[in-house]
Every structure is written in structure tokens, then in C-alpha cells.
From TrEMBL:
Belongs to the D-isomer specific 2-hydroxyacid dehydrogenase family. Its EC number is 1.1.1.95. This is D-3-phosphoglycerate dehydrogenase. Catalyzes the reversible oxidation of 3-phospho-D-glycerate to 3-phosphonooxypyruvate, the first step of the phosphorylated L-serine biosynthesis pathway. Also catalyzes the reversible oxidation of 2-hydroxyglutarate to 2-oxoglutarate. It catalyses: (2R)-3-phosphoglycerate + NAD(+) = 3-phosphooxypyruvate + NADH + H(+); (R)-2-hydroxyglutarate + NAD(+) = 2-oxoglutarate + NADH + H(+). Pathway: Amino-acid biosynthesis; L-serine biosynthesis; L-serine from 3-phospho-D-glycerate: step 1/3.
Amino acid sequence: MAKVLVSDSVDQAGIDILSQVAQVDINTKLSPEELIQAIPDYDALMIRSGTQVTSDVIEAGNQLKIIGRAGVGVDNIDVEAATRRGIMVVNSPEGNTIAAAEHTLAMMLSLSRHIPEANQSVKEKKWERKQFIGSEVYQKTLGIVGLGKIGSHVATVARSMGMKLLAYDPFISAERAEQLGCRLVDLDIIFTEADYITLHIPRTPETENLINAETLAKMKPTTRIINCSRGGVIDEEAIAEAVEKGTIAGAALDVFSEEPLGESRLREVGSNIVLTPHLGASTEEAQTNVAVDVAEQIRDVLLGLPARSAVNIPGLNPEVVEKLRPFLQLAETLGNLVGQLAGGRIDQLNVRLQGELTDSQSQPIVIAALKGLLSPALQERVNYVNASIEAKERGIRVIETKDASVHDYSGSLRLEATGALGEHSVSGALLSDQEMRITNVDGFPINVPPNNYMLFTLHRDMPGVIGKIGSLLGGFNVNIASMQVGRKIVRGDAVMVLSIDDPLPEGVLEEITKVTGIRDAYIIKL
């Protein structure tokens, strides 16, 4: 039975799901060294924000297939190292969307109305109404940096509160921003015009210390900043100084460059700053949602099924996976087939999407084809996570083309592999019932479903060849499930495809090549 290590506290609902398919060990007190020592025994690791999954941990995880982060951010996982090892990294991109958005809005309103200070004042038996005169958010301009799921929900609610919305997100179209009531602008416009700025971005080399002394100096003295995204995107020393000096009106921070927050100038700012201990996802509903979401994905991967939200499989989001699932299987099957036909070292793979398939997202299909191509050589070491890396490291050049003019099927795929032993090509398509068909091999038209064991021959189209092959296989007790011949001209060359029930016994292929008229023969195992 598979083993899963849960190294941070997660909701019991997630544990219950994992327990259906695996032995689940919960240990939330492991030091980095202890985690490295323990991880070799596990097939999966489930974490939250506390566990640091370093390259050393990943290197030690000899059996690891998947790392699941019960939350959105994966800053605490070395995703690149996991990808190189073929370890899938999944998260829950939507599980805490509402919780994080609501906390952002709560922080904004708390900051505007001085709620933390007023609360403390009343508890100290004071009644200082004039000291806590606040600001309304109505008709104020909110600058949203990052218009993903959380930022979009903040925009929806803020718009209903009567706020004017500016947004910066280089990956969002103007049409999508307009649907949310936002005007897409450059960052400088947000810095100079917004009354409130909320950040919803990951911490990357490009976003680190995005809010700093220089950008703070561009802001209005009435600007307030809210960050419930990731620590490190704000220079904490600079923002503390800006609040103290009145460069900006205030800041509300839920995340910090180092957590828990240690000695920090932020703690010394007397007023107009609200600090919370990373509570963005801390609702009962969110904790259940993310635990269930990630546990289901870990369960599915351990059962050999795809994950919904793998962060290190380009283009494979849930919607794409569901839509392209049959074509991904087709691409992998054809890649496996052409790889075995080509044999030896592969230098180049041409992936040609044809017909209606040209309208589909191509990157996942290319990845699936590469996985199939490399599977005969690498077996279980290659998967959707590391297929592109493995191909690149082997010097395989990948060329992708689209040809909408092909109308034989509603959508078809053609792979051409060039290597040390020559060039081979295969084509395939899906029928209306989603059943796969191999439709062409090396230019010869055929129409056969893939089978676990197949025999391909290139031979002269002449009487007696097919009969001799059938008799030869019968003599070795090999049962033929189906047979088809493809040819271009009568009595020219032809391709024969035999689906057989069992692997060919040793020595049979050599006997087949001795038959008069046989030019070449290949055993294929799919």
C-alpha cells in the first residue's frame, strides 16, 4: 500500500480521503533533517505553509510521486527540483479564494476605520470617538495588483461597495478586466492614483520588494496598502518608515518575508498599521476546502489518474485536462508507437495537429507525445511533469505545426520522429465515440485500434506473404486478434499491422524477416 506523509496540520476531511488508498502518517514536528531522513519511505507528501520542501528533501524522496500543498502558494517547495525528478506538485488554487478575498476586504476596512486601535481603546475603558475618525471606501480608487481568482473576487465586492477599480496584470486581457469593472493600467498609474492598493501576486524575482522606498514615494499621502498575498513583495523596513513619516496613510499586512514575524520595525509603528499572523486562509470552510481538494488529487495520482491542479505541468489546468483527455491519450499512444518504430536515438519530433484539433491548446498534447516517445526507454521515470526536460536533455528538437486543412477526421494528430536509424511517422484520430484509431504509418493508410501487442511489417504487395506470416505465427501458437494491410499502389510496398493476444516468443521476429517479400518487421508493445 502507498504511504503518505502529512507534515503540517490539515483538516481531518483530507486525511479521511487519503486513508482510502494509502497508509497516512501524520508528523507535524519534523525538523528539516528529520524530514530528509523520513521522506525516502513515502510516495506522497502533503503540506501547508510550514514545511520547507527543499531540493535536499526532494533528492531524498526516492519514492515520491506527488507533493500536495493545501493552499495556493508553493513558495515553500522547490518546484524546479521536483520537476527534474518527475515529482508532481499540486495545490488548491481555488480552495481559499473566498477566505483570502474576505480577509483582504476586512483588512482594508479595519485600516480605514481604525478598528484595531478603537477596540483596544474601549477595552482600556476609554471613549475616544474623535481620535478614530476614519475614511470611507465609497468612491475611492482601489488599485488591484494581480487579477487572479482572489483579486477578481476582491474586485467584484469592492465594485459593489462603490469603489473605482484600477488593475495591473500582464496576463489578463482588457476584456476580462472590463467584465470585472477594472481599468487595466501600468503599475505607475496605480502607484500614483490609487487610494488603496491591494496585492495578489506570488513572490518571484520580479515581484520581490515590488513595494519599496522608491515606489512608496510615488504614492499619495492618503494611500493605504493591503497585502494578503505573499511576504517579501513589500520592503517591510521601507513601508514601516513610510507609515511613520506619513508618506502613506497606512498599511495592513497579513504576510511577511519571514514567518513567524520576529524582531521587526513593523511592530514599532504606533498606529495606522494592522498586522495579522497569516490569517488569509484561516477559515473553517477554507481549511476543509483546500484539504479535500489536495487530498483528492493525491489520491487520484496514487491511483494512476491525472491531477486537477498540477503547478509543474504546463497548460494542464482542470478545464484543459477534461477537454483534451482523449487527445492526450492519443498523443501518448502515438508517441510510444513512433518511438518504437524509430528505435535508437531520436533527434527530432514533429508534432502536427490537424483539422479541428488545431483549435485546441497544443502544449499539453506535445508533452503527452514526448512522454509516449520516451516511455520505451525511460519506463516509469518519465511522466507529464518531466517529459519536456528529459527530451531537452537528450537533445530532441521538438517542432509543432498546425494544419487545419486536413478533414479526414474531426481532429487528428501526426507525429514524425527522426533519429539515428532513419525517419518514421504515425497518424491517429478519435472516432465519434472517442475510440482511438491509428490511421497512417509511414505514409501507408490504415485504420486499426491500438493493441497491447502489435506486429508491423513492411513488405512487397505480392500473393502469399500474408498467408506465410499467418502460418508462421500459428506454428508458434501466436493468436492473431486482427489484421489490416495498407498500401499506396497495387503490388508496390505495403504495411501490415497484426494485433496479437500475447508477446511474440523469442526468435519469431527473426523468422518473419526471412519470409520472402518482407522488408522489415517491428514488435510493438503499447
